[in-house]
Amino acid sequence: MSILEGEGVTKYFGGLAAVSDVDFHVDQSEIVGLIGPNGAGKTTLFNTISAAIAPRPGVIRFKGKRITGLKPYQVCRMGIARTFQSVKVFNNMPVFENVRLGSFFGTATRMSSAESAKEAEELLDFVGLSAMNTTLAGDLTLVNQKRLEVARALATKPELLLIDELMAGLNNTEVAQAMKLVTSIRDKGITIFMIEHVMKAIMGVCDRIMVLHHGVKIAEGTPQQVATSQTVVEVYLGE
Amino acid sequence: MDIIRGVFKMPRLWWLISLILLVLLATLPLYGSAYTVILITAIIMYVILTVSWTMFFAPTGYLSLATAAFFGIGIYTMAILGEQLPLLPAVIAGGLVSFVVALIVGAITLRLRGVYFTIFTFGLVELIKHLLLFWEINVTGTRGRFVVLENNNTIFGVILGIFVVLMLTYYLLRRSKYGLALRSIGENEEAAAHLGVNVNLLKVFTFALSAFFMGAAGAIMATRWTYVDPYVAFNVLHSFLPVLMAIFGGMSQLYSPIIGAVIFAYIEEQLLTRFPEYFMLIFGVILVVAILYLPNGLVGLVRKWWQKGLREENVNS
User: Fold this and answer.
1) Which pLDDT value is given to residue B1?
2) Cα A204 vs. chain centroid, distance in angstroms?
3) Do residues A12 and A18 lie in contact, with contact meaning Cβ atoms separated by under 8 Å?
4) Which of B13, B35, B102, B167 has the highest count of CB atoms within 10 angstroms of its CB?
């Protein structure tokens, strides 16, 4: 069953269609990749799902319920969490409090102070940051800030996690760790929709891949199908 | 329940110090001169304006210059309702009217960020002042209003009460999860929203909460001034001084804006009475020095010295 569906999702910036009439779906417990050249509209599509911007026209449904027109905090509480392409951690707050905020406000049910503390500790352990509880988020390295963003998003107890370029700027070892992290998030039963430029990573972890180009969906399929698709090769390498 | 338990978590020493200071203050009319009572009333008024301004600015980074507007609304509420209502309800009414106006204004303007928000709030003071002036002259046919006179000791008691409620509110807000959320808004509003924080509601409500205390302070101060007109009530200095006082004292700790406001207001009073001609000049110099050399305020400076002292002690031992 599809946990997330989009119909005719479109978003214009001025006269330019950043996303144009895209239909998509993400099934329960899937890892779906979203790729495309720079400026293809990938992050814009994510923004419409997380309600940062409203598609116009277009409809997005989450678990069968229409979420277009909702506010970001409402979408978050319904169970869609996200990370950001350019990291947006709360620099002057300790790592622990970054995560705690998510469990205080982003979950569907209220959480007591003790529960949220326990939850935050477990999540920091899960992403491998438990030694840095009290460090200010701004003092972390880029890779750790990205891990923190994942932990923070998970703290909202999502059913669907949108990951925007988790691996950009990471070295090979870190990419391998990040891939492992993504699969272990899915093993927790969380569906993943991810934007990624690191081909090795996306081919390795995704069940299915969508390709955007100039805001239009030009291909979709298993990593194998996408990698051998003539259109995709043309878009990436030129004709 | 969390909130109630939180009150008792503050270190015992701080409770003791606060309590002693509070008792000393509350009994001031018994041993202090009439002048002292009036002076301290004025100082506490500034403390209230400064702390309530800081309550919104320090975590969120939204610089409001609407303090004078909410203060003035409190003043006029007292001027209009003072004769119909007993003192305390009239003071609370002053706070509530400011609260409601801040809710409405906040809902419209808190979408604005940075300097646009600041300029708008500044404009608000002028707008309300001139609207009121227009109304008074064309509709009610007056220029100013007389306010019921109150005993100085009563005024002192009420303003002290407002101060205590404000400090408890600010203390609880800071340590609650909403305090955390407000800080996250100041850090990155977009990320906060995507983590489930109802950013607009929280901002608007906190803005209104701070306006409540400004309005209540205005309402009680009106009874001391006995005659008010729109120029007195909506004096932009009441917008700027709290900002300067907070910068002067610092904003990192609960008590830093209090210290800033107390020292600042006291210096102002002393300069005004001793060097009336040079008052603004000396005042300006102090301000420039404070802003240049005290980036974290007076409290930040003392804490820095304190920590340096501790470190040296450790090295020596």
Assistant:
1) 44
2) 17
3) yes
4) B102
Arithmetic mean of pLDDT, A26-34: 92
Sign of CA dihedral A67, A69, A70, A76: positive
- Measured between beta carbons, the chain A residues lying within 8 angstroms of B196 are 73, 76-77, 102, 104-107, 156
Pick from B60, B96, B81, B212: nearest CA to B147: B81
B-chain CB neighbours of A153 within 8 Å are 195
Q: What is the mean predicted confidence (pLDDT) over A14-43?
A: 89
In this prediction, residue B273 carries a pLDDT of: 84
Span B121-135, average pLDDT:
93
Question: Which of A91, A102, A113 lies nearest to residue B195, judging by beta carbons?
Answer: A102
List Cα–Cα distances, B143 to A3, A139, B68, B227, in angstroms. 66, 58, 19, 11
Measured distance CA(A104)–CA(A124) in Å, rounded: 16
B193: closest chain A residue by CA = A73
Residues of chain B positioned with their CB less than 8 A from the CB of A101: 177, 180-181, 184, 192, 195, 197
Q: Tally the domains of chain B.
A: 1
A237 vs B169, which has greater pLDDT? Answer: B169
More confident residue, A239 or B58: B58
A154, A129 contact by CB (below 8 A): no
Question: Token digits for B36?
Answer: 């002292």
Tell me the shortest Cα–Cα distance from B193 to chain A, in angstroms: 5
**What are the C-alpha distances in Å from A19 to residues A45, A58, A82, B123, B283?**
7, 10, 19, 40, 57
**Beta strand spans in B103-245 (E):** 145-146, 227-228
Cα end-to-end span (Å), chain A: 37
- Cβ neighbours of residue A162 closer than 8 Å, sequence gap 6 or more: A46, A49, A50, A80, A81, A82, A83, A193, A194
B154-172 tens-digit pLDDT: 999 999 999 999 999 999 9
Q: Is the pLDDT of residue B208 over 90?
A: yes
What is this model's ipTM?
0.91
Structural domain boundaries enclosing B225: 2-316
Q: A1-69+158-165+188-239: which CATH number, 2.60.120.200, 1.10.443.10, 3.40.47.10, 3.40.50.300?
A: 3.40.50.300
